[in-house]
């Protein structure tokens, strides 16, 4: 049962800390009940108690490691079967440091499982559930490195480019269904992801690092404004619109029966 004031249940992955924990708080303020998913059950329970006490919403916690297929399937099944869920925040993710040629490929495979496979399976389940209900919201946390892959390592950048592309395609598929879709592209945000990935964030210039609360508030403002893609730190939205427009200018010429003249 949802709380009387509830807007339904928001399922938040990576909810025990950082961006996910702040989203959980903000969504509780907005009247959502919560289903919090993360690996750290102790932190989840602590967060849940605080959220129940401060916001009067129902909070359920689910311990899951989304690098493990059986745990992903558990969350996926819940998304497909629970009609109370009205928002999915695909937030859980991890970074990795170093060049692809010298990378720990086992670590990269775990990152791909979390940043790509789990995101895809959960988005698919939510899209199916929400479209049938004619309502719902899917928020996928990508990154600005999706737009500037040369500035970070290959696999993480590629994984976030995938999330952006997935969101854009999914939005097109869900047109007219009543489901809202958003990709959020943060820049460097002050969270635990850096130290967990072995990256020294103290070497990044302070003017490039946004506090997680500011990032989440900007992202939710973008959601309220109906943005498909929200870039919290971009001052001029016209730059993103120009980027999209340039892509559409190329579109009629991306697949033709003959090769371009310069190749002949």
Automatic annotation (TrEMBL):
Gene3D superfamilies: NAD(P)-binding Rossmann-like Domain. GO terms for molecular function: oxidoreductase activity. Keywords: Oxidoreductase. It holds the Pfam family adh_short. It comes from the Bacteria. InterPro entries: NAD(P)-bd_dom_sf, SDR_fam. The keyword ATP-binding does not apply. Belongs to the short-chain dehydrogenases/reductases (SDR) family. This is SDR family oxidoreductase.
């Amino acid at each position: 049962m949802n709380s009387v004031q509830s807007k339904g249940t928001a399922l938040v992955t990576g909810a025990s800390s950082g961006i996910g924990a702040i989203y959980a708080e903000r969504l509780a303020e907005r009247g959502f009940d919560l289903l919090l998913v993360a690996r750290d059950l102790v932190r989840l329970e602590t967060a849940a108690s605080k959220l129940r006490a401060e916001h009067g919403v129902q909070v359920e916690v689910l311990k899951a490691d989304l690098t493990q297929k059986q745990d992903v399937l558990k969350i996926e099944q819940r998304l497909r079967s629970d009609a109370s869920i009205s928002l999915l925040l695909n937030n859980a993710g991890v970074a990795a440091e170093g060049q692809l040629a010298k990378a720990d490929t086992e670590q990269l495979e775990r990152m791909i499982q979390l940043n790509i496979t789990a995101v895809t399976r959960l988005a698919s389940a939510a899209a199916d559930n929400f479209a049938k209900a004619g309502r719902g919201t899917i928020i996928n946390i990508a990154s600005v490195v999706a737009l500037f892959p040369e500035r970070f390592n290959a696999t993480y950048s590629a994984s976030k480019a995938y999330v952006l592309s997935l969101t854009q395609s999914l939005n097109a598929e869900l047109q007219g269904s009543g489901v809202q879709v958003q990709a959020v592209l943060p820049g460097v945000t002050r969270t635990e992801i850096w130290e967990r990935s072995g990256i020294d964030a103290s070497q990044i210039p302070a003017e490039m690092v946004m506090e997680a609360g500011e990032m989440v508030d900007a992202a939710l403002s973008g959601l309220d404004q109906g943005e498909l893609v929200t870039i919290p730190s971009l001052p001029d939205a016209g730059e993103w619109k120009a980027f999209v427009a340039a892509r559409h200018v190329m579109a009629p010429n991306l697949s033709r029966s003959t090769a371009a003249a310069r190749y002949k």
